[in-house]
Structure formats: C-alpha cells, structure tokens
Amino acid sequence: MLKAFSLINRREDVSLDDFPTWILEAHAAKGRELPGLRRHHVSVVEADDPASPYHPVTELYFDDEDAFMAAFASDAGQTAGADVAAHAAGRVRLLMSEERII
C-alpha cells in the first residue's frame, strides 16, 4: 500500500474559516473521483499559527506507485490538482509506505 502524504499551505487570501470547508467538502469530493483511491484521510489545523506553514494534511492511499501515477494522470487527478493550485500557496508531497505499530 502506498500513501501519498501532502502538507498544504493555504493561500493568504483564503481565510482559515473557509479553508476547512473547501478541503473537507469541495476538494474531498474531487478526491473521491480518483481512480484506484483506497482511503482518504484529512487533518485540518484548528487555529491559525503563523509559525506553522501547513494547514491541512492529506493522506491518499493507493495499491502502489503505478496506481498513484495513473490516478493523477486521469481527468479526475488533473481536476483535483488544479483545485489545490487554486486554493493553496504550496504543497509538499511525500510518497511512503505505511507500517502499523499499534
């Protein structure tokens, strides 16, 4: 199982109050359309902290890197990517495997 872990920095012109609604509702709906997506988790900060560069953290799970690449090459992946670009100042994406400890 491959996990795509993304740290997203909201644009300054997008309010902290509006950002969770966008990521949890509008953007999550686009994520659900990704082919091959197995799980999708989102964590959102509860208070704006100027020292913290990231506001939500998303976790997208795919069978493997090929499935991940195919998902983001699809029309749904292109739409989701454009949606992030419209709301985020930046994003750091890490591809990793998940190992359960507990």
Structure description:
The protein is an alpha+beta fold and 102 residues long. It has three helices and four strands; from the N terminus they run E-H-E-E-H-H-E. It is 35% helix and 31% strand. A four-stranded antiparallel sheet has the order 2-3-1-4. Helix 1 runs antiparallel to helix 3 (75-87) and helix 2 (65-73) crosses helix 3. The mean pLDDT is 91.
How do the helices and strands line up, and which of them pair or pack?
Elements: E1 2-10, H1 18-31, E2 39-44, E3 56-62, H2 65-73, H3 75-87, E4 88-97
Antiparallel strand pairs: 1-3, 1-4, 2-3
Q: Would you give the CATH topology?
A: Alpha-Beta Plaits
Number of strands: 4
- Overall mean pLDDT stands at 91
User: In CATH's first tier, which class applies?
Assistant: Alpha Beta
Q: What is the helical fraction, as a range of percent?
A: 25-40%
First CA to last CA: what distance?
17 Å
Tell me what the CATH architecture is: 2-Layer Sandwich
Shape: globular
Structural class: alpha+beta
What string, H for helix and E for strand, traces the elements in order?
Answer: EHEEHHE
Residue ranges: pLDDT <50 for 5 or more in a row? Answer: none
Sheet of most strands: 4 strands, antiparallel
Give the percentage of residues in beta strands: 25-35%
Query: Number of helix segments?
Result: 3
Q: Strand order across the biggest sheet?
A: 2-3-1-4
C-alpha-based Rg, rounded: 14 Å
How many structurally independent domains? 1
List keywords for this structure.
globular, alpha+beta, Alpha-Beta Plaits, 102 residues
In short:
With about 100 residues, the chain is an alpha+beta fold.
